[in-house]
């Protein structure tokens, strides 16, 4: 399949693996890229420029296909050394960066100069237009269904994607709720030129996370995510568990008095406990509603090949079949 996204990123299939904290390691990104999609290393999981450089090098040993690096801008008092992290990305020869969380404008000149393509992930059409106006090459449009941070507008992809298509000139991928060929064909029909998947890629053989996490996603239905941190305007969609229920109770009890410190036990330092030590109930971790569509643990190649094969079947048989009387 050829779209403006496959052309822009120099990949075979219009499927991207979104940055995921403690999941987007070299093994994950290489497996997706080797399968013809775009694998993405999550920059902040490494944290320091030295560690990020080493992780990119490890990934480049595992694949000679294009890979990307996610750089998430977080609301924090002690920000990581973003300029040095971006320099590492450029020096390593990586040609795609996925930015998220805030406006990446100040880093665009250095990325452009190095011919690095920038995909900015956003949850609102106005943010996508802003990304376009500052010179991003593409956007990832993240609907309300998504795992992680859906923003505060709560617009699901059935509305958000056609709205993005109405306004944008640069290509965009659909993100949030994407799992299979039906997602890809649906997204293409709404104007996207590819899909970005998070949760679906965690339940793959190569995802470098504990089996308990994959099993938790398989066991979950579309009813099993919750939105946390809404009172802090830092909403995150997470998998429900007893720690999340405790957190939500605190939000309810404290109302507008809630501060980050009140919920620190349920949200801080959780990812290594969940992803490495295999304790999915240790606290709140991102997961999309799409968990309801995930029932197997294929390799990334099996997953991507199946999406592409079934997409062709849907387009050429099912959809065109409707046109024949
Ligand atoms: C466990 C997990 C961790 C994530 N961490 C990040 C992150 O660090 N930075 C980021 O930009 N997005 C992060 N995301 C969001 C994904 O990149 C992607 O946008 C989202 O998962 C898409 O929705 P889906 O899960 O329905 O596919 C994370 C998602 C999950 C499930």
What does this entry look like structurally?
It is a single chain. Helices cover 43% and strands 14% of the residues. It is built from 15 helices and ten strands. The strands form two sheets. An eight-stranded parallel beta sheet has the order 1-8-7-6-5-4-3-2. It has a two-stranded antiparallel sheet with strand order 9-10. Helix 2 (26-34) packs parallel to helix 4, helix 4 runs parallel beside helix 5 and helix 9 packs across helix 15 (300-323). It has helices at 4-9, 26-34, 43-46, 49-62, 82-91, 108-113, 125-134, 157-167, 181-189, 199-202, 211-219, 242-254, 264-267, 270-276, 300-323; strands at residues 15-17, 39-42, 67-72, 96-100, 117-122, 138-142, 172-175, 195-197, 225-228, 236-239. The protein folds into two domains: 4-208 and 297-323, Alpha-Beta Barrel (TIM Barrel); 211-289, no CATH class. The site of flavin mononucleotide has 29 residues, from strand 3, strand 8 and helix 10.
> How many DSSP helices?
15
SSE string, helix = H, strand = E? Answer: HEHEHHEHEHEHEHEHEHHEEHHHH
CATH class membership of the largest domain: Alpha Beta
The level of helicity is 40-55%
- CATH-defined topology of the largest domain: TIM Barrel
Shape: globular
Task: Report the uncertain regions.
Answer: none
The distinct ligands, each listed once, are: flavin mononucleotide
Tell me the number of structural domains: 2
Beta strand count: 10
Which structural class is indicated by helix and strand composition?
alpha/beta
Looking at the overall shape, the CATH architecture of the largest domain is: Alpha-Beta Barrel
Question: Oligomeric state of the chains?
Answer: single chain
Mean pLDDT: 97
Summarize the main sheet. Answer: 8 strands, parallel
- The N- to C-terminal Cα distance equals 28 Å
Q: Strand portion, in percent?
A: 5-15%
Strand order of the largest sheet: 1-8-7-6-5-4-3-2
Within CATH, the superfamily of the largest domain carries the name Aldolase class I
Q: Over all CA atoms, what is the radius of gyration?
A: 19 Å
């Amino acid at each position: 399949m050829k779209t403006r996204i496959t052309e822009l990123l120099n990949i075979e299939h219009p499927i991207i693996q979104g940055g995921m904290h403690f999941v987007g390691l070299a093994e994950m990104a290489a497996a997706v890229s080797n399968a013809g999609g775009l694998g993405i290393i999550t920059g902040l999981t490494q944290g320091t420029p030295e560690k990020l450089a080493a992780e990119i090098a490890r990934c480049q040993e595992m694949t000679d296909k294009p890979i990307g690096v996610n750089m998430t801008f977080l609301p924090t008092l002690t920000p990581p050394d973003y300029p040095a992290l971006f320099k590492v990305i450029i020096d390593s020869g990586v040609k795609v960066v996925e930015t998220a969380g805030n406006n990446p404008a100040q880093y665009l000149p250095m990325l452009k100069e190095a011919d690095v393509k920038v995909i900015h992930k956003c949850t609102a059409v106005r943010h996508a237009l802003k990304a376009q106006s500052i010179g991003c090459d593409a956007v990832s449009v993240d609907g309300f269904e998504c795992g992680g941070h859906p923003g505060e507008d709560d617009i699901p992809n059935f509305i958000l994607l056609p709205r993005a298509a109405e306004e944008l000139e640069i290509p965009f991928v659909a993100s949030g709720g994407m799992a299979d060929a039906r997602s890809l064909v649906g997204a293409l029909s709404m104007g996207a030129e590819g899909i970005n998947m998070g949760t679906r890629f965690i339940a793959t053989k190569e995802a470098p996370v504990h089996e308990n996490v994959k099993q938790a996603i398989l066991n979950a239905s579309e009813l099993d995510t919750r939105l946390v941190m809404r009172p802090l305007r830092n909403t995150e969609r997470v998998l429900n568990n007893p720690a999340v229920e405790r957190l939500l109770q605190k939000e309810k009890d404290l109302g507008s008095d809630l501060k980050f410190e009140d919920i620190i036990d349920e949200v801080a330092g959780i990812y290594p406990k969940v992803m490495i030590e295999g304790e999915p109930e240790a606290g709140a971790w991102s997961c999309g509603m799409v968990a309801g569509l995930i029932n197997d643990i294929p390799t990334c190649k099996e997953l991507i090949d199946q999406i592409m094969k079934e997409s062709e079947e849907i387009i050429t048989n099912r959809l065109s079949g409707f046109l024949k009387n």
